[in-house]
Structures are given as structure tokens and as C-alpha cells.
Design a protein that fits this description.
Elements (H helix, E strand, L loop, with lengths): L1 H13 L13 H22 L10 H35 L8 H8 L1 H32 L1 H14 L9 H4 L3 H13 L14 E3 L2 E3 L7
Antiparallel strand pairs: 1-2
Helix pairs in contact: 1-5, 2-3, 3-5, 4-5, 5-8
Length: 216
């Protein structure tokens, strides 16, 4: 699931699939990025969560962590450079493509540095959280087979065949899917807390809660 998440987030953030789900088509960069992402999670826990003296003394382990981060940044930058060239060639051959611009293409129009940082952030923040969220959904559905069947029936309405296409319009027809995901995230959140802000003032059990005030 982590590799599937990296493949999916990579397509969104880098406009390219690393190819790690297929050993035959996986690029060396894709394989390396997959390894580095896993290392970064372990190193982040070791040096950001666990007690460490690296803030006062740069330990060999900390230096290794910085090297891993740098290698990851270089790979992502290479993907961005390649995507920029591909998008440029595509624009020349097809003309204006503004109606079908991806996330990376829109960011590259702003600034290549911004695009690189955002791509790195999306990969760093999106891979583990996405795979964890899907795992939680599957786990909860496996424990509630009646809900699983209800969700399956809803999905079969918009995807009746194996080759049925999923589009934006189809996503408007799966309210139960959204409910399942939200309830699963409520029961097994992927982060330590959620920040929310109301769109309008409300009164909750005698307390006035104003809009746009962020609370946990």
C-alpha cells in the first residue's frame, strides 16, 4: 500500500509514475525514491521524536539523515526538470492545454522552486498518510461486512464493469463512500489531531462558537 500510495502521489505531484509497482518498468530513480521515502520516515522518528543530542552535536546518524534527505531532494528535482521538459514539448505539439493542467504544471507556471518544494511536501506528507488511511478503511470494512456490501453496491452503480471509467462526475454519485472514509478517519485518524473551522456562528450546548475560529 505504501508503494501504491507513492505511485499515486507521484503521478499527482511529479506528473510521472515512479513505476515501482511493476519491477520490469521501474526506473532506478523510482526504486531509489521508494527506499529513501521509507528511510526518511524512520529517520524522522529517530531524530524528531526520540531523544537525541543532534541539536548540540552532529552525530554520524544525523549526518546520514541529512545525506538521505539531500538524495531525496535531488531525485525529486530531477523528476521536476523532466516533467518541465515534457510539459513544454506537449504544449508545443498540442497548443493551449490549460483546461487539463495537472498540479505540477500549474506550479511550474508560478516558479520551479515552488514546484519542487510542493512536490517534496506532497510526497513526504501524502504517502504514509494515504496508505494508512486506506488500511484503516479496509480494516473497518472487514469488521463490518454489511457496510462493505452496501458500499460495494454503490460502487457497482458507477463502475458496473471492470473497464468502467471513474471521472469527476462519478465521484458525485458516491455519498456512502465519502461517509465511510470520513467515519474511518474519525475512528482511526492518521494524524494526532484535526484542525477545524466553522463556516458560520453556532450555539452548542449553550456555548457560542464563532465562525472561522480554528479548534481541535
Amino acid at each position: 500500500l505504501n508503494e501504491w500510495a507513492l505511485e499515486s502521489i507521484g503521478l499527482i505531484s511529479l506528473d510521472s509514475r515512479p513505476g515501482i509497482l511493476n519491477d520490469q518498468s521501474a526506473s532506478e530513480q523510482g526504486k531509489k525514491l521508494n527506499v529513501i521515502i521509507k528511510e526518511i520516515f524512520n529517520l524522522s522518528y529517530k531524530y524528531d521524536i526520540l531523544p537525541s543530542i543532534w541539536r548540540w552535536y552532529k552525530t554520524p546518524g544525523f549526518k546520514k539523515a541529512m545525506k538521505v534527505y539531500e538524495e531525496g531532494a535531488i531525485i525529486i528535482l530531477n523528476y521536476v526538470h523532466r516533467a518541465r521538459k515534457t510539459l513544454k514539448d506537449r504544449t508545443k505539439s498540442t497548443g493551449d492545454n490549460s483546461d487539463h493542467e495537472g498540479v505540477l504544471e500549474q506550479l511550474l507556471k508560478i516558479d520551479e522552486g515552488v514546484a519542487t518544494v510542493m512536490a517534496a511536501d506532497m510526497i513526504g506528507a501524502g504517502v504514509d498518510t494515504t496508505s494508512s488511511a486506506v488500511t484503516a478503511v479496509w480494516y473497518n470494512l472487514a469488521r463490518n461486512l454489511d457496510k462493505q456490501e452496501k458500499l460495494r453496491a454503490e460502487i457497482l452503480k458507477i463502475l458496473p464493469n471492470k473497464d468502467s471509467k471513474l471521472d469527476v462526475k462519478s465521484l458525485d454519485s458516491i455519498p456512502y463512500m465519502r461517509a465511510v472514509i470520513k467515519e474511518s478517519l474519525r475512528m482511526i485518524p492518521v494524524t494526532t489531531g484535526n484542525l477545524r473551522a466553522l463556516k458560520q456562528d453556532i450555539v452548542l450546548q449553550g456555548y457560542v462558537i464563532p465562525k472561522e475560529v480554528i479548534f481541535n
